[in-house]
Amino acid sequence: MFLDFFLLLKEEGLPVSIGEYLNLLEALNKRVTRFSVEEFYFLSKTILIKHEQFLDRYDLLFGNYFHGVELSEADKKEIPKDWLQKEIDRLFSEEEKAMIEKMGGLDKLMERLQQLLEEQKEKHQGGNKWIGTGGTSPFGNGGFNPEGINIGGDGGGRSAVKVWEKRQFQNYSSDVELNTRNIKLALKRLRILTREGIEDELDLHTTIEKTSRNGGYLEIEMHPAKKNRVKVLLFFDVGGSMDPYVELCEQLFSAAKSELKHLEFFYFHNCVYESIWKDNNMRYNDRIPTFDILHKFNQNYRVIFVGDATMSPYELTALGGSVEHYNDETGIAWLQRFVTKFPNTVWLNPSNEYYWDGTPTVKVIKEVFKDRMFPMTLDGLANAMKTLKGKKIIH
Amino acid sequence: MNEEFKGTENYIATEELQIAVNAAIALEKPLLIKGEPGTGKTLLAFEVAKALNKPIFTWHIKSTTQAQQGLYEYDAVARLRDSQFGDEKVNDISHYIMKGKMWQAFENEEQAVLLIDEIDKADIEFPNDLLLELDKMEFYCYELQKTIKAKTRPIVIITSNNEKELPDAFLRRCFFHYIRFPERPTMIDIVNVHFPHLEEELMEEALKVFYGIRDIHGIKKKPSTSELIDWIRLLKLGKNTKEDLQKIDYLTTQPPYFGSLLKNEQDYEHINKIKRAGQNTFRRF
After folding, report:
1. Predicted ipTM of the assembly
2. What angle do CA A200, A202, A207 make, to 5 degrees?
3. Is this structure's pTM higher than 0.90?
4. Which end of chain A has the lower number of beta carbons within 10 A, N or C?
5. C-alpha closest to that of B163 among B214, B134, B128, B124
6. Residue numbers in B near A20 (CB within 8 A)
């Protein structure tokens, strides 16, 4: 009997599988809960939903599907009718009360409210039917209908607030930290194992060799364990045309921070010039000369630029072409310095690869980077990491 | 169902949580617990063990933990060393197999509770390495050439702090419960369990301050249940009264033992800034 509900969840994009559905049936069969809607809600939630980001959507669908299924008596928290009556006596004039009666009384009004809420999908302003702000519909904020019901704020509470209707998980559905898993897996490809540091692993080969030279007496040799010690410099383009990609960049950044132990990051705007910065709040006060970066880090560092490479051509090719200050050297010259100094450099471009050829500056930068520009898709990221690792360019 | 978890005298479990735990026990599935820090995720496993009177095995995960360590470890170096001295032990490899927490829980005669704590701390592939073990509750020991199978399937409780995403295949095998931050009535129950004789007025004021801080927009590390409990303990020790708490204005008078509630120095500045700006973000001023 719950198959339709299950299919509804599936249809609405919740990641539920047949195994979980069978689990739910098994749990019901085993009488894990008693037969009340609320307990069924708790049970189905714990079995079917595996991530807090989906909880809110689940609450909505549950409410929608099981609408009208009565709560057991004990669950009801009805507001006594006479309380409401008192409020009405206090708030409305005689004239207005007569109008309420005209529309079929309070119950009718509430029913209509529910109905409208379901019909209405979008935010609404003005007009005389939908719920919104202004207007003359009986529902909404700041309207004129004496029967008006205040949506949100204080009003509304008619009866039995069901648990799923509280939608307590609304906030969890838009976390930033989510979905970085794929990015982390892609970053894992950038793994360069070296032996450095404390000798904590048995060097089997040398041990055997030394032991045999020693006439069979054991001589243990240790060496440091192989660890990923790849060092990375990350340069982010911020502001302007990068704004649509902020979320994507945040994900990349949070994934990189947790996956790469030796990571340094810097910000620039559109193109790198003689100085960059580390803290976006201090971008005008606390700048680092780009030459310092070029001198400080050796060529073993892998360098990743993240930017859409979309700007006015002057910003790349002309003296004084920067949109923010007068630059003594062209943007290209600066980029060239990085490419020359660091043999393993890539440019990640979050914009759609389809438009690259139509944007002159993308073409120029791609040339400077010897074709090592990759889209910020999972494939692109994986290829970029492979390219960073070796000498070959993989597309 | 023969046994049911209903919380203990020291642990208030919401109905939601009870159902999740009981469903996981009945269907013999691992239960994945997430939630804000300090909402009692780890404690849950201990309380389940206590309530159902079962032994508990805890496996605390670190960034270097590998799945194999939960099963067993083979100490080849010790064996090699022993062989030098002609020790009889050498001939039996089982002397050098060190059982991990999962093996111990599997081996236990009666059903045990197995806590895998903070699974998100480990490497991103870690949960995938435990799929079969958690599904079938068995694994193969190569050195001994035998399959270790759970005598009774343990109740597995896994906690996560959301530092890493868990793989789908792993999630599909678990039941999931998100411990929400307790609402006021539940919180009063929780405080009552810890401080049965707390004056009602002090509790009222303390909760006001506590929820007031939690409601401030933009706080980095919101104080949690365990911080509230610590704070009330300090208030009791310091013999603070409700009048002390009513004086708080966050400008000249900070809450006593403020440090036990707020753990991030930026949050202090944040509160101060809001206060000076005169925004009435607090519930009570």
Report:
1. 0.76
2. 140
3. no
4. N
5. B124
6. 172
